[in-house]
Amino acid sequence: MVTVTGPATTIYVGGQNAVASSGEVVGKGDIGAQTEQIFRNLEAALAAAGAELRHVVKRNILVVEGQPVGPAVVSAPAQPDFLAELEAVAVVPR
């Protein structure tokens, strides 16, 4: 459970996947490489809003069926080369 009191900024980060800044899908067929890129993208998105990974209070990780791990499994991603996707909520105290 997370309780936020006082002034804070809440940041909602939607659908991070394994796309590099060049637009290229990273790690086609490699869940580990894709996960690393997803977290790099999450860090960049958080930084743009003045937050860090330590501010994340909730995350949802969706993993394509047939992958070796997965808290939540989806049958198909938005793009066929994606093996996972992450969304997060962060709270940054002011």
Short description:
The chain has 94 residues and is an alpha+beta fold. The chain contains 1 helix and 4 strands, in the order βαβββ.
Write the layout of secondary structure elements.
Blueprint: E1 8-16, H1 31-48, E2 56-64, E3 72-74, E4 84-93
Parallel strand pairs: 2-3
Antiparallel strand pairs: 1-4, 2-4
Verbal overview:
The structure is a single chain. The chain has 94 residues and is of the alpha+beta class. The chain has a single domain (8-93), classed as 2-Layer Sandwich (60s Ribosomal Protein L30, Chain: A), CATH 3.30.1330.40. It is built from 1 helix and 4 strands. The two termini are 20 Å apart.
Annotation field: number of helices? 1
Strand content: 25-35%
Number of domains: 1
**Which CATH-level-2 architecture?**
2-Layer Sandwich
Rg value: 14 Å
Sheet of most strands: 4 strands, mixed
CATH superfamily: RutC-like
Average pLDDT number: 88
CATH class: Alpha Beta
- Identify the overall geometry: elongated
Broad structural category: alpha+beta
| Annotated CATH topology | 60s Ribosomal Protein L30, Chain: A
What ranges have pLDDT less than 50 throughout 5 or more consecutive residues? none
Beta strand count: 4
* Helix coverage percent: 10-25%
Strand order of the largest sheet: 1-4-2-3
H-E order: EHEEE
Distance between the termini: 20 Å
